Sequence to fold (504 residues):
Amino acid sequence: MKLAVLLCSALAVCHGAEVKQSRKFPNYFVFGVGTAAYQIEGAWNEDGKGENIWDYLTHTNPSAIVDQSNGDIACDSYHNYKRDIEMLRELGVSVYRFSVSWSRILPEGLSYYINEAGITYYNNLIDELLKYNIQPMITIYHWDLPQRLQELGGFMNPLIADWFEDYARIVFKTFGDRVKFFATFNEPSEICSGYGSLGKAPMLNETGFGDYLCARNLLLAHAKAYHLYNDEFRPTQGGVIGFILAVSSTEPLTDSEEDKFAVELYSQATWGIYTDPIYSKEGGFPKELVERVAAKSAAQGYSRSRLPDFSEEEKAFILGTSDFFGVNHYSGSYVSQTLYTSQHAIPSALDDIEMGTYAPDEWLQSASSWFQLMPNSVHIFLKLINARYPGVRIYITENGWSSREGIVDEDRVNYYRSALEGVLDALDEGINVHGYLAWSLMDNFEWMAGYSERFGLYEVDFNDPNRTRTPRKSAFIYKNIMKTRMVDHDYEPESYVMTIDEGH
Ligand SMILES: *[C@@H]1O[C@H](CO)[C@@H](O)[C@H](O)[C@H]1NC(C)=O
Ligand SMILES: *[C@@H]1O[C@H](CO)[C@@H](O)[C@H](O)[C@H]1NC(C)=O
Fold:
């Protein structure tokens, strides 16, 4: 029995093994799907919406996007949101995670002028979700900063904390009577990569500076919004509010102490920098990372560390400011200092840690260059989080597979099945996972990859003005998993016609 379990998890997919067939997700565990405003809404300049950094980037520098596309129309969810909710009912989800577009509500980013049409759009969306008993989860910021605020420095200006607090106040005040599940920021590492590299808007490429400054200011903005909710809104609204990180799975390349330390330092640089200030015992940035960047900065002749530390007062202000650990997970790799190649800019975060990663060729490659399927990846990253912050309450807020255009998606089907087996493995070990939100409800604008990489349970026809959505096989498989609360590897849909089950 024990051996069977070990073998199954080593192979990631355990086809039909009796030991696993009977495992059920507990009653408290919630299932859902997620999307983000810029990736789906379109209507980029309709009804008073202001310009954001992705509108600006895609319009002024279209060649930065693989297929020169943009989110001007995207899935046109601004006009099709009722169809989106019909799809949620077809799937039978209990939670829908979407983000609110800052510049749709505050066209200039600042709170002196509120665009009522933007408020109406989200009110309609929320009311329609509640009509069908679907719990809304709002991501307050999913990468689409108002362009006006970018011109004032964006996340490199410490005033971002005040601007974000003002915006969050409007979100809580306007939607918090009905929405009880909030996340402040989605994937700060990607937000800040727009300052420390060319990886995302606004593509500032201030390597080894902009990313660290952004991390610091973003954490203070998060903490301000958390305290605002906690002090002024929670007493009457009674919801929860958290923070959403991207965590990939990592294992040391060898058993050496150096490689084990490499995994630790890599975790500190890629997610601990955002999570230790909130969830660790002492607060503040991770110790070894702080020492490393300080030493590197000194050796490079700087009189101060490029990673500016928090004051004791700021540390205390940030510590404990999250009701749950929201985590997005995709790829995995082996990590080692021996894999480091000196091809990174100096200074830069990658040069600071001197680390390399490795994904064997045998691992299945998704349509995204950065995303390979590490065996047992979901179980591994959940163990990493739980080891760092024992007992922390985890929601997987994004997870899914990327493919090319097309309706056939056997790889995605296999991905979801093995990912959810990984969640069950973690639950068996007592890891405190409370929910799973698949990414994504439908194909959408995949940032720098445009429409060339597809993550949808539903395919979207971007050549059709109606943006017709068609369920892929994975939609039927995920629906069955949610309905039975089990992963049945032998389940095949009776037909490929979607219907809404009773009660949805
Ligand atoms: C980005 O910045 C680094 C220096 O930190 C530089 O080497 C590189 O050429 C820059 N890239 C672009 C496209 O400007
Ligand atoms: C788009 O929707 C309109 C209105 O429902 C319909 O008349 C038209 O046939 C649709 N077009 C396509 C290509 O599905």
Remarks:
- The chain has 18 helices and 13 strands.
- Confidence is low (pLDDT under 50) at residues 1-18.
